[in-house]
Amino acid sequence: MESAIRYLPLRLSARFIPVWRRNLLVWRKLAIASILGNIADPLLYMLALGYGIGSMIGDVGGMSYVAFIGTGMVCQSAMFTSSFEGMYSAFSRMHVQRTWEAIINAPIALDDVMLAEWIWCATKAVMSTTAILIVIQVLGFGHTWLALWILPLGFLVGLCFGAFGLVMNALAPSYDFFTYFFTLVLTPMLLFSGVYFPVDQMPAWLASIAGALPLKHAIDIARPLMLGRFPDDVLLHVAVLLAYAIAAYYVALVLTRRRLLK
Asked: CA-CA distance, 223 to 68, in Å (whole number)?
């Protein structure tokens, strides 16, 4: 019976909303510090690299280097914010504070809690995406209505990497375990997905590997939008991100059921 419960199909209900709202209310108490933390690191990289290295290399991909790297930073910020929320924050609520245990003792299932955490990861990604996009606008780039589509893209990226974070959360014995994900997954994703330089300048074999990375597909949507044109193969990019998100979330749900429903 326990084995069957672990592999039940996804069960979605509106009962996740109060759990999501609970996370929002907690976040509001630390909103300013949270927002500053989400934008400070990518902003420093964008300014230092964009204006520093950019002054030596000129335009890249039809835009100034600061605009080029800024577009990558929008997606990077969504990736790191949602991953962090799915790992460190979710682990605190699940294992340290035992908030999940208290919630599922009410008429709310573990699936509802997991769905709320997943959507909350994506919500946080939209918050960080919005902040970075405003900074880019203030710097004088991306003044096109198509740039607004980067916000729902941030939500999709948040679903994808939030699900990855929840997979790691289900496996983690401690906070230190998350270092593996940052080192072995997020750092290579950051370096080889076109955040800092065009992927087509890499060797063909490496570019083909980069083409399978979800962050690369996100950037391939965001960068044309920042230039004011509709992305090529947008349906393909969206489909890849959705496939990663749904598959990773299902794995996270199965692993979390196995961990908690004993």
From this structure: 7
Contact 258, 6 (CB under 8 A): yes
User: What residues contact residue 109 under an 8 Å CB cut-off, 6+ apart?
Assistant: 11, 13, 15
Record the pTM.
0.91
User: Is 8 contained in some domain?
Assistant: no
Residue 45 in contact with residue 132, Cβ under 8 Å? no
What total number of domains does the chain contain? 1
Determine the distance from the C-alpha atom of residue 149 to the mean position of all C-alpha atoms in its chain, rounded to a whole number: 16
- Tell me: the pLDDT tens digits for 134-192? 888 887 777 788 889 999 999 999 999 999 999 999 999 999 999 999 999 999 998 99
Domain extent for 151: 31-260
What is the distance between the alpha carbons of residues 15 and 12, in angstroms, rounded to a whole number? 8
Sign of the dihedral through C-alpha 134, 75, 22, 177: negative
Is residue 101 domain-resident?
A: yes
CA 12 from chain centre, in angstroms, equals: 21
